[in-house]
Amino acid sequence: MSQLLAYYLQNIKANHHLNAFAEVFVEEAKDQASLIDQKIARGEAGKLAGLVVGIKDLFNYAGHRMQAASKILEGYVAPYHATALERLLQADALIIGRQNCDEFGMGSANENSVYGPVHNPLNPLHSAGGSSGGSAAAVAAQMCQLSLASDTGGSVRQPAAFCGLLGLKPGYGRISRHGLTAYASSFDCVGLIGQYPEDLAQVLEVIAGPDEWDSTASPYPLAAYTGKLSSVSSKKIAFFEEILDNGEGLQPEVKDAFLAKIAQLEEQGYQVEGIKFPLLPFLLPVYYLLTTAEASSNLARYDGIRYGFRSELQQAELLDGLYKKTRAEGFGKEVKRRLILGTFVLSANYFDAYYQKAQKVRRQIREATQQVLRHYDFIISPTTPSTAFELGKPRQNPVEMYLEDIFTVQANVTGIPAISLPIAYDARGLPIGLQVMANFEKEYELLAFAKEQLEDKKN
Amino acid sequence: MTQYADTYELVVGLEIHIQLNTQSKLFAPESHVFGQLPNTQTSVVSLAYPGTLPRLNRQALVSALRLALACNCAIQPRLVFDRKNYFYPDLPKGYQISQDKEPIAQGGILHFWDSQGDIKTLPLHHFHLEEDAGKSIHPENAAESHLDFNRAGVPLIEMVTEPVIHASETALQLLYAVRRLVRFLGISDGNMEEGSLRCDANVSVRPHGSSRLGTRVEIKNLNSARNVKKAIEYEFVRQCELLAQGQHFSQETRAFDAELGRTRTLRQKESLHDYRYFPDPDLPPFLIKPDWIAAIQAEMPTLPHEWLYTLRNTYGLPASEAVTLAEEPEALRYFEEAARHTPLYAELAHWLNNELRALQKETGLLPARWPLRPKVLAELLTLVASQKVSRLIAQHQLLPQLWNNPAHSLADLIQDQHLAMEDNSAVLQNLIQEILLAWPDKVKAYKKGKKGLLGFFMGEIQKRTQGKAHPSLAQQLLAEALDSSRY
After folding, report:
1. Which of A130, A171, B142, B424 has its CA 20 to 30 A from that of B154?
2. Do the chains contact at B44 and A306, CB–CB below 8 Å?
3. What residues pair up with B98 in beta bridges, in sequence order?
4. Nearest residue on chain B to A66, judged by CA atoms?
5. Yes or no, beta carbons of B89 and A319 under 8 Å apart
């Protein structure tokens, strides 16, 4: 264990320039490693002994700082454990450090961070993706074996795709959100980034399941992980034809890789069918209206009063000044943009036109998606329209960046589980990801499918 | 108030906040007891630390359902909680979890009674369940304010009446009725001084006969039932004066200053908040199943107005005794138990409301812990009624002894201390003879027609028997003796 840890710590040192970690728990991890070694020697070690995990800077880890990559949580020390993290610790996983991400999980490039951007290990001029950029870069550069991250609109799958890894967003409520700093409550999912499907399955089994601290956690326990991901019995796969039609935005190499994958799947005996999904254009609007609405309320607690950052005030300034200055200085640009949008969406005069209508469309999307999943085992698409983009490239407007989430948000709007797995590389050597969605409680099936495809690629 | 009462009608609706006495807070695990040191009853949940989530307290739900059943409200089968968003330092999350469009209880009626003990009803608009905020404390001459989050997250019911109250006295009686009801239901201590019962009043006036409501003014900071009455009365006159002068005024929120007995502007309508209500995504809709409601219904206690009705009609108590007795469930249970052993209901109520309350005050023991068993009290009253023991002896000698030492047997006490009524004619006749011989002048005066002296002789008899002489027997023997020619 201690040797393994030394290996990861060495890699963290060597890859410092990637900016993947906000903080590395060096000494603590060393102590922890020797304790786990002793447990192993006594034969008392937990299920996850030997696993070195990094955590996204959104999880409360008692006694440790947590900042959500935001200035507003400067100095905050978590007084309690997030449920997922607590279950990892109980199973003797080793927590090596907390990882850079977009502020409060809002972003697709890991550029909205108080710590600065994360660089892609495969090409440091490119983004590692977002919002869990640090979590993906850390696994890709062998700085930890697995990352505990979160996915509100693709924040686990997109960086996994950009870094050539597996990114699993389980079904909504599969893993307790207790202790995960909220972005949008009805979308947020604890997710995992790793290299091997078996790792993900094993960790999922440990951390999933009911939790009295999260009323939205599924009351049904996850089936036990048998130790192997049995071969895939599901054979019917759908993809939405519209995603190929609208040429602009979809990188040609990504499209080619996706079509090649379809052909390969058919060779393997899968029945792959293109179908229409007319609600596709509504996914992003629904996603951005509802997530910003929820965020505007979820982030109201950061007021500089009880914890975190508080702006220096002049003597005579009133309460309003405290709020305005603290929040203006504490939040980054993208977060503020979303809070303002969300506040607008919920305001009395626009509530029906935006929030209510978006909720209605969300229900329709859920039903339409369920309709598809009654006939097909999986729905596939590229994970992202393009491979990892260059860092620091100025963008026309934020909507351009929002389009990055076009394929991933459906799983969050509907709550179903989804996975991203690497299928190819573009000409610059950047990975291309395939997203697979399945119905609720099919996390193991997604992992089994990923395993099968990864093994096939090797052969 | 009277000068305008002929011209204008008062229209009041009340918003009553009831703090529930649950073990833990509405969505957080910690307890909430009044009067603890600031910020000692908090948790990461009620302080809104990042990543914390609400968890609905079932006990609070049961309390709300008990109240809904007591008031005959329509119960919302699918419970949704909404976020009410606003910034204030004592509101940790930046929103209050409340209920906006679908309150747990709609409609229903509140039973109350007037000073004559006549039962009345008032229609309710709705009540909903929400969490309380913390407390901001602004010390005088201090540059900073202090915050106490002990109250943050305490379960609260906000009850809204229809605006059909037309007398300040009615508002007072309604508040008493709510306090009584929540105590009978055991869901709140209903203590206004400690803030577990709070009230805002919406007051408007209009010319008699008008069906349109006048401009509404909301009065806050009403921390006692008396102040609610006073504030309404002040506000009625203030609004009438403005109307009489032809002045218009706008909808606003005012505060009542109890010391000055006046209301003053707190904020104008223009600054009313947009609370951006939306369903709390952290709390899935909670389904209230009919069999659960049925189980709660089965556990419902007898309600205050049901008690009052029974006391007046079944037990035939006079209104004054019935109203006093119906204030408290424990005293009623005591009464009910004692009434199984004697039909002297009015007597029983009178003793309970007076003698036993006096002993309660002396000893600080609440009815549930009164040492005197109801059955023994009934026996004592039976002895008094059948003139086996005099009322004075019973009240001043037997009752205190039985209270202080419940192990005593009533019969033994009477026997050992010779406290029984003296009803032996021969003994009384001897006594009367002694007295009449001792006061020949008065006997003479009596015979000459000063019949009022009978009372004097009776007094002498009771003095010499320490009040134990059987009154009617003694009086009869006295009259016979005086009328005889022996003296």
Report:
1. B142
2. no
3. B82
4. B50
5. yes
Same domain, B170 and B203: yes
Hey, are the CB atoms on B51 and A60 less than 8 Å from each other?
yes
Return the DSSP state at A299: G
Candidate from B274, B278, B280 with C-beta closest to A293: B278
Based on the fold, state whether residues B340 and B284 are members of the same structural domain: no
User: Total domain count for chain B?
Assistant: 3
**Nearest CB to B50 within list A68, A212, A216:** A68
Do B41 and B141 sit in the same domain of this protein? yes
Residue of B nearest to A62 (CA): B44
Query: pLDDT tens string for chain A (459 positions)?
Result: 889 999 999 999 999 999 999 999 999 999 999 999 999 999 999 999 999 999 999 999 999 999 999 999 999 999 999 999 999 999 999 999 999 999 999 999 999 999 999 999 999 999 999 999 999 999 999 999 999 999 999 999 999 999 999 999 999 999 999 999 999 999 999 999 999 999 999 999 999 999 999 999 999 988 888 888 877 777 899 999 998 876 567 899 999 999 999 999 999 999 999 999 999 999 999 999 999 999 999 999 999 999 999 998 766 567 788 889 999 999 999 999 999 999 999 999 999 999 999 999 999 999 999 999 999 999 999 999 999 999 987 666 677 777 789 999 999 999 999 999 999 999 999 999 999 999 999 999 999 999 999 998 665
Q: Is the pTM of this model over 0.95?
A: no
Tokens standing for residue B360: 């309660």
Q: Which amino acid is at B221?
A: N
| Interchain contact B89–A (C-beta under 8 A) | yes
Q: Same domain for B83 and B44?
A: yes
Q: Find the Cα–Cα–Cα–Cα dihedral A322, A323, A328, A332, rounded to 10°.
A: 130
Distance from CA of B215 to the nearest CA of A (A): 23
Give the C-alpha separation, B287 to B79, whole Å: 6
- Structure ipTM: 0.96
Q: Retrieve residue B208's tokens.
A: 């008699």
Domain boundary among B232, B266, B293: B293
What chain A residue is nearest to B149 in terms of C-alpha separation? A306
Query: In this structure, is the dihedral angle defined by the CA atoms of residues A303, A305, A306 and A307, taken in order, positive or negative?
Result: positive
User: Which among B258, B293, B328 is the end of a domain?
Assistant: B293
How close is the nearest chain A Cα to the Cα of B61, in Å?
16
Same-domain status, B433 and B411: no
Q: Report how far apart, in Å, the C-alpha atoms of B290 and of each of A143, A326, A361, B206, B297 are.
A: 55, 49, 32, 43, 10
Hey, is the C-beta of A136 within 8 angstroms of any chain B C-beta? no
Structural domain containing residue B391: 302-416
Residue with tokens 């649950």: B22
Do B224 and B102 belong to one domain?
yes
| Interface touch A301/B44, C-beta < 8 Å | no
CB contact under 8 A, B276 and A351: yes
**Domain shared by B194 and B242, yes or no:** yes
Min Cα–Cα distance to chain A from B56, Å:
8
Q: What is the CA radius of gyration of chain B?
A: 31
Whether A131 is catalytic: yes
Tell me: do B401 and B478 sit in the same domain.
Answer: no
